Amino acid sequence: MHHHGYLWSGLKERFDNEALRRPPYPVPPLLPEPGDHKAVKVYQRYREVAAEFPTSDLPPLESAYWLMKPGSLVQGTWGDAKEAAAWLGERLTEFAPRFAAERDRDTTRLAQVVSTAAERLHTGADVSYGFYLERPSYLSMAVVTCSPNRSSPELPCPIR
């Protein structure tokens, strides 16, 4: 078992595009009948999401779905849960001055987040955190357990 770290920061408006943050349904919608404009829109949207989800850097709605993304999005890989949690701590320290909420900048609170992350990762669980930055930005960080992932063991590891 090992862990991959992921980080995304960007416009909150882009983060809120949930259709691009979930994998497409495994079975595409039927080809629409000519003139069925609603079905054509659904079919086109499915094709858009099916093409964009695997390559988009947007954080997926479920942490395990990071494993469906390109290996180039992996920010780090660790065999030890404490090392992966330390990476989270470094990123938290880096971004803390930009956190929109003052309570999110509290160093004691951030240390507890890192400690809790290490405990969860040690059990094979994933961790995912999000913080509002200066408007209108958002930060998403995740450490995902791989080989296998506890919630989605069927997903292959993006980096061997």
Can you give a write-up of this model?
The protein is α+β, with helices and mostly antiparallel strands and 160 residues long. 32% of the residues lie in helices and 18% in strands. The protein has 4 helices and 4 strands. It has a 4-stranded antiparallel beta sheet. A hairpin with a 4-residue loop joins strand 3 (127-132) and strand 4. Helix 3 (81-95) packs antiparallel against helix 4. It is flat and about 60 Å long.
Task: Indicate the topology.
Elements: E1 2-11, H1 12-15, H2 37-52, E2 76-78, H3 81-95, H4 107-122, E3 127-132, E4 137-146
Antiparallel strand pairs: 1-2, 1-4, 3-4
Task: Write a compact overview of the structure shown.
This protein is α+β, with helices and mostly antiparallel strands and 160 residues long.
Helical segment count: 4
What value does the average pLDDT take?
Answer: 93
Poorly predicted parts = none
Strand order of the largest sheet: 2-1-4-3
Strand content: 15-25%
Query: Which bin fits the share of residues in helices?
Result: 25-40%
Question: What global shape is seen?
Answer: flat
| Sheet with most strands | 4 strands, antiparallel
Distance between the termini: 11 Å
Number of DSSP strands?
4
How big is the Rg?
18 Å
From the helix content, strand content and strand pairing, which structural class follows? alpha+beta
Q: Secondary-structure element sequence?
A: EHHEHHEE
